[in-house]
Amino acid sequence: MDYSVTKMQLPSPAKLNLFLHITGQREDGYHELQTLFQFIDLCDTLDFTLTRNNQVTITPTIDQLPTEENLIYKAAKLLTPFKKDSSFGIDIFLTKQLPMGGGIGGGSSNAATTLLALNVLWECHLTVERLAELGVQLGADVPVFVMGFAAFAEGVGEKLQKVELDTPYFLLIKPDCHVSTGQIFTDKYLTRDTPPIRISHALKLGGHNDCLKVVIKHNPEVEEAYLWLKNHGDAKLTGTGACLFLAFDNLRDAERVKSSTPNKWQSWVCRGCNTSPTHDALNQWIEQNRG
Ligand SMILES: C[C@@](CO)(OP(=O)(O)O)[C@H](O)COP(=O)(O)OP(=O)(O)OC[C@H]1O[C@@H](n2ccc(N)nc2=O)[C@H](O)[C@@H]1O
Ligand SMILES: Nc1ncnc2c1ncn2[C@@H]1O[C@H](COP(=O)(O)OP(=O)(O)O)[C@@H](O)[C@H]1O
Questions:
Q1: Is any atom of ligand 1 closer than 6 Å to the C-beta of 156?
Q2: Between the N and C ends of the chain, which has fewer C-beta atoms within 10 Å?
Q3: d(CA 224, CA 15)
Q4: CA 58, CA 232: separation in Å to the nearest integer?
Q5: 225 and 211 share a domain?
Q6: Which of 35, 39, 180, 181 to mutate to test the pocket of ligand 1 (most atoms within 8 A of CB)?
Q7: What is the domain-level CATH number for residue 181?
Q8: Do 37 and 118 lie in a common domain?
């Protein structure tokens, strides 16, 4: 055994798309993007317990989501061929805090956290690059969570260049609606021809979110929250929404605007991070449990 300890607890953070440009569409229908990913310290928690029964269990189940469709389960199944011992199984306890379908990548993050944890507990010994390559099959956002650094991303989000960004406080708001990513990407009025920019341009000048107009058209609740947040600064949509965010230099200002946020919207104050909290915790676990 690489490690005698059979339990591991890891945070599974959300991401923000600080901007999201759609630069084209591939023949398979998927869209070519340019985006700036940053993690935030708002996290789910996953507790892993290694077993010897060759089973994958996840508790509690997510409402209306069969276990086989849970991205945590799919991630575990992807790693099964690489287990050092075929008897290895895993019990996973999920503490969900991240809203689903909010454009903050909770499902993708859970999948990446599972890949990283099982790679160690099941002694698969795959590189993070290989895990990211496997992970993209589960979702375009999985690679950035596996690699664990803030990144300028291209392709469908899997071609990553590491970046160091300011780490502001963010006020994150979730309007009370669920945006369908598929519906946004199939809308004929979606802008798909934003000219590609260079990374230096992206870092200096930022960008916008091409999905905003179409998301607002389909979801009046997002428009209402966007207009409200815009009164306080440069409000942005993350991914295909529904979550919106606004950056602040200091915690006090972020908390002040949060306290005036209408109760009908969930809201959080969080901090941007350039390294994924999953990686910080995993490195600490490895350091503590090395033989
Ligand atoms: C838009 C982004 C930006 O970070 O974030 P989210 O809003 O989902 O968090 C992602 O690229 C979301 O990627 P991913 O998580 O794989 O999207 P999925 O829910 O699997 O995709 C749903 C559908 O959207 C379309 N889709 C998705 C990604 C992409 N680059 N082009 C697409 O055309 C496809 O039709 C796909 O079947
Ligand atoms: N472990 C998981 N956590 C959240 N959502 C999951 C999970 N597994 C599968 N899903 C599915 O993925 C969808 C998108 O989830 P999520 O990644 O949180 O949204 P988004 O990419 O919009 O931020 C959910 O609506 C749900 O059906």
A1: yes
A2: C
A3: 23
A4: 41
A5: yes
A6: 181
A7: 3.30.70.890
A8: yes
Instruction: Note down pLDDT in tens along the chain; length 291 residues.
Output: 688 889 999 999 999 999 999 999 999 999 999 999 999 999 999 999 999 999 999 999 999 999 999 999 999 999 999 999 999 999 999 999 999 989 999 999 999 999 999 999 999 999 999 999 999 999 999 999 999 999 999 999 889 999 999 999 999 999 999 999 999 999 999 999 999 999 999 999 999 999 999 999 999 999 999 999 999 999 999 999 999 999 999 999 999 999 999 999 999 999 999 999 999 999 999 999 986
Q: Are residues 225 and 255 in the same domain?
A: yes
Q: Are 13 and 80 in the same domain? A: yes
Task: Report if residue 14 sits inside a domain.
Answer: yes
Query: Active site residue: 44, 74, 141, 210, which one?
Result: 141
Together in a domain, 160 and 53: yes
- Concatenated DSSP letters for 220-263? HHHHHHHHHHHTTS--EE-TTSS-EEEEESSHHHHHHHHHTS-T
Determine the 3-state secondary structure of 54 from DSSP.
Answer: coil
Measured CA to CA, the distance from residue 31 to residue 249 in angstroms comes to: 33
Are residues 148 and 178 part of one domain? no
Domain that holds residue 247: 169-273
Q: Is 104 in the pocket of ligand 2 (CB under 6 A)?
A: yes
Helices 106-121 and 277-289: crossing angle, nearest 10°? Answer: 20
What does the block give as tokens for 130?
A: 């290989």
Q: Structural domain tally of the chain? A: 2
ipTM of the complex in this document: 0.94
Q: Is 2 contained in some domain? A: no
CA of 100 to the centre of ligand 2 (A): 5
